[in-house]
Amino acid sequence: MDIKAGSVVLSLAGHDKGRAMVVTKIDGETVFVADGKERKLLKPKKKNIKHVRTTNRLIGLSEMTDKRLRRTLSEMFARTEE
Description:
Elements: E1 7-11, E2 20-27, E3 30-34, E4 45-48, E5 52-58, H1 66-76
Antiparallel strand pairs: 1-2, 1-5, 2-3, 3-4
């Protein structure tokens, strides 16, 4: 799958390894990602594109807030506890 703004990715390296994030911007071999908690939409983290894995999920970024982004990502990756 092609990475584009709004793509949900999983971090493969760094302090945020394993965390789900959304791509806010792409600049060559670099993506800017946010999760709404540690990395806000107004100040996304710069990551090498090799250090993220795409999922088949997209999020619309228009009118997105940090709170809504946190909720959306947690609902996408919620684990069912039995």
